[in-house]
Amino acid sequence: MIKIYFKTAWRNLKASKFYSVINVCGLAVGLATGIMLLLWVQNEFSYDKFNKQYKNIYQLNSHITLESKSLAWQGAPGPLAVMSQKIPGVIAALRLVSENENPTLSDKVLSNIDQTKVFDNNNIVYAESNFLNFFNYKLLHGNRNGFLPNAYSVALTQSTAKKLFGTDDAIGKMVRFDKNNFIVTAVLQDFPHNSSLQYDAIFPVDYYAQQFTAHGGNHGWKTIDEDVNDYSFRTFLLLNPDANKSTIETKLTHSFNAMNKGQAQTTFQLQNLGDLHLTGIDGDNSALQMVRIMALVAILILIIASINYVNLSTARALTRIKEISIKKIVGAKRRQLFLQFITETVLTFMLAIFIAIALIVLLKPLYDSITGEQLMLSLSNFSMLEIWFFVLLGTILISGIYPAMLLSSFNPLGAVRDKSFLGIKTSSFRKSLVVLQFVISFILLVGTIVMGKQMKYISNKDLGYDKNYVFTVSFPDEATKNADAIENELLLQKGILNVSFSSASDITNVTEVSGDIMWDGKKDDVPFLLWRVQADKNFIPTMKYRFIAGTNFTGTPSDDNKYILNETAVKAMGLKPPYVGTKIGYGTADGEIVGVVKDFNFKSLKDPVGPLVIRTSGLKNILYVRTTGAGAQAAIKAVASQYKKYASNAPFSYDFLDKTFESHYQSQQRTGTLFTTFAAIAIFISCLGLFGLATYTTQVKTKEIGIRKVLGAGVGSVVQLISKDFLKLVIIATILATPLAYWAMSKWLQDFAYRINMSWWMFAVAVIVIMLIALITVSFQAIKAAIANPVKSLRME
Fold it and tell me: Radius of gyration (Cα) for the chain, nearest Å?
């Protein structure tokens, strides 16, 4: 019997090739895009959840109170890890600190023992020996219990080991780092792409602690277990499953603030490991909301594709009335007819699945490029198979049940007599589905327009300096002893306009912050934090910052006690003009303000400009080079020559500042691209549904159109007759969707401190585009009906 159902289904599909192709293509596009988007959503939610204990692992975040505001910080002071282990419910604590948090270390380069292989720009972290007790990273070589047994041991990733030694079995080999030799005691498989932690080499916190003490500590604190003013430790706590998170947070907060009297009041908050990727330390869940929206969009696209199948199936019902009626008259049961139509749906889906798979394979490079992730197409990927199963089950049920029940339930006698029955007459349901399709399409289209304008605004916004034709090079710290010689030589080269050494590895995202500042009138009990940059006298002219008061550094030793602040800093400090000469104390040194620069953006445009201080003392190993479009290649070549001269065997690399700036908004740009892509797909699939409804309408109005044409109606009036009802549906959809689109994009724009204002024309453009696309879609069938011979249509009646 099943074989007969499939043969009949195949015969019906072949008999109406045009509609079958539309059905199969619509479902294939919907399935392919829906599944790819759901795979991306699944990947976003999978971050860090490969760790078996992730539900019980929490990151300790700090919220530092500054007058009426709170500054969220990913790190915590070192003593918190020690204090936490005395609190019931805490099983263990783990401290991590990245190498850029330790300004005392002079060498950030990894090499083998004889320095024949040298690699810079490594992602290095210091960790405690219980690192693998928290995280389930695969250990290729070594002992989990002896992960980092002493201060001069190191764990490498597989890729780093192969770069240094040509093999991943590097146990017992020596690594040169920070002028010291370290023995490899562990080799880890490269960190998974869905891990929030990504490192190339892991050194012991014990070594970091030794160096901290050896360099005098931090003011009066000589060990990392005492220093309550250094918030650079990324701290993880492993809790009992039944531990009360709020109680632990409260105890840590009270204990720390009691010990840290007179300093900034700090509240500590525990964030689950599984939430790190999509939720900010300040509670910002915009990324999480965007992933949820994308999941909803994927489901809606699948529903739209299913709706189209329903619309096209019911639109074709008129052509099958006699077939179904005769089958019923000769004794076919409703159940048999139902199974026949379900079989047609299953067969259509089988064809659509093959095309969808082909589309996914063909679109994989584009998917990888847009999302920045690698789509894993493997039968061993259980998550992918799970998504395929539920998507197919859901869409088949949605697409097949309604048409099968409708077509198998009507009265054959009435159908043969007037070619009409209740399911065909009542088109309100199908029209409402078309409205829903265009509501979704309109919201996505408005989102595309708003996101595009916002990204363009960010790219073109005046940051307070010129980021074009500036590139940076990270020099090994040893090479900075020759900074003056390097700068003088480069300034003689053609194509180089200016050069400067700075501490900021990325001036578009400054990370160093300090509260060690005093001035007359400062309230002792009110904490004040400001961002800081170390730079030489050429930095301000190189970056083209503008002074509103005072002058630049002079390049003499007296600069060590001179400071340049930005507008926000002097305003936040309550200083009044003239600012120059104002005495301030920074760290352990007393000095004065020599200049104030106009505010410029040194953080993400999601944040307003904060207070900033520029000073000359301290490590400065990042070379900033301003060049021209024509002279860029010559400038890079000249810097590479100096790098080779002073940086030994370390590999040379550079980054253009405008590209670095753009990289901070990659996720928003990718979201915009995804929105554009899926808006186009949603509109395409919606038009298929509109096309199906237009086809149905022209079939129903065949007699009316024929009579009108016999009475003298022109093509234009017939097109208007058919099109006006559909354009009404689209207008209703845009009216319903406009407030929803405005609300959704307002929420998205709130994530930016600097943002565009949504204008009426953005919605008007979306309305015009949707209307034009709908009109073209409907007009195809309307014109076809209008130019048909009325004699043929009336003869059928």
Answer: 34
pLDDT at position 632 is 92
**Neighbour-count burial for 251-274, b at 16+ CB within 10 Å, e otherwise:** bbbebbbeeeeeebbbbbbbbbbb
Asked if pLDDT for residue 672 goes beyond 60, the answer is: yes
Average pLDDT, rounded, for the chain: 82
580: left (phi over 0), alpha (psi -120 to 50) or beta: beta
Does residue 476 have a cis bond before it (omega within 30 degrees)?
Answer: no
Question: Contact at 8 Å (CB) between 672 and 451?
Answer: yes
Q: What are phi and psi of 57, to 5 degrees?
A: -100, 130
Label residue 13 by pLDDT band (50, 70, 90).
Answer: low
> How far does the chain reach from its first CA to its final CA, in angstroms?
36
The confidence band for 386, taking pLDDT boundaries of 50, 70 and 90, is confident
Residues 408, 410, 411, 417, CA torsion sign: negative
DSSP state for residue 153 in the 8-state scheme:
E
d(Cα 623, Cα 483) in Å, to the nearest integer? 9
241: its two tokens:
């499953």
User: Which two tokens mark 458?
Assistant: 């960010």
How far apart CA 202 and CA 354 sit, in angstroms, is: 46
Report how far residue 458's alpha carbon sits from residue 437's, in angstroms, rounded to the nearest whole number. Answer: 32
* pLDDT of amino acid 411: 61
Strands (E), 222-265: 234-239
Q: Residue 619 phi/psi, 5° resolution?
A: -65, 135
The rounded distance, in Å, linking the Cα atoms of 687 and 770 is: 10
Tell me how far apart the alpha carbons of residues 443 and 736 are, in angstroms, rounded to a whole number: 10
Higher pLDDT, 244 or 280: 244
Strand partners, 609: none
Q: Are 68 and 220 in contact (CB under 8 A)?
A: no
Instruction: Say how many C-beta atoms besides its own lie within 10 A of residue 144's C-beta.
Output: 10
343 and 3 Cβ atoms separated by less than 8 Å: no
- Asked whether the CA dihedral 531, 533, 537, 543 is positive or negative, the reply is negative
Write out pLDDT tens, residues 445-498. 898 888 888 888 887 888 888 889 999 998 887 788 899 999 999 999 888 999
CB contact set of 760 (below 8 Å; sequence gap of 6+): none
Pairing verdict, β 530-534 and 612-615: parallel
State how far the Cα of 657 lies from the Cα of 639, in Å rounded to an integer: 16
In which band, very low, low, confident or very high, does the pLDDT at 274 lie, cut at 50, 70 and 90?
Answer: very high
Residue 608 — φ and ψ, nearest 5°?
-70, 160
| DSSP β-bridge partners for residue 622 | 474, 502
Helices (H), 587-714: 632-646, 657-663, 666-700, 702-710
What distance in Å separates the CA atoms of residue 651 and residue 667, rounded to the nearest whole number?
29
Buried b (16+ CB within 10 A) or exposed e, 603-623: bbbbeebbbbbbbbbeebbbb
Please report where in the chains the tokens 């011979």 appear, as a residue: 789
Helix axes 702-710, 666-700, angle to 10 degrees: 70
Write phi, then psi, for 188 (nearest 5 degrees). -100, 145
Ranges 23-27, 156-160, 278-282, 449-453, most confident = 156-160
Neighbours of 494 (CB within 10 A): 11
- Classified as helix, coil or strand, 372 is coil
State the chain's maximal CA–CA distance in angstroms: 106
